[in-house]
Amino acid sequence: MKDRSRGTWHKSSYSNGGGGNCVEVAHTSEPIRVRDSKDPGGPELEFSGGAWDAFVREVQRGGTVFGGE
User: Fold this and answer.
1) Measured distance CA(7)–CA(26) in Å, rounded
2) Which long-range contacts (CB under 8 A, 24 or more apart) does 15-21 make?
3) In Å, how far are 38, 42, 69 from 34, measured between CA atoms?
4) DSSP 30
5) Phi, psi for residue 11 in degrees, rounded to 5
């Protein structure tokens, strides 16, 4: 079973209280953990520090992160 106590969860500043897209991130030494704030007991994604940095840079750049249109 995954240890869900590692790190402190922080909600994205872009998340709103209207039940929309809400993402939380737990920064630990590694891995960086990401979850849906509406389902804190649900699945998590884990990123290496380098992969997380690349993801954040691409989002900030306004690029298409997931290869969609």
Assistant:
1) 5
2) none
3) 12, 11, 23
4) S
5) -80, 145
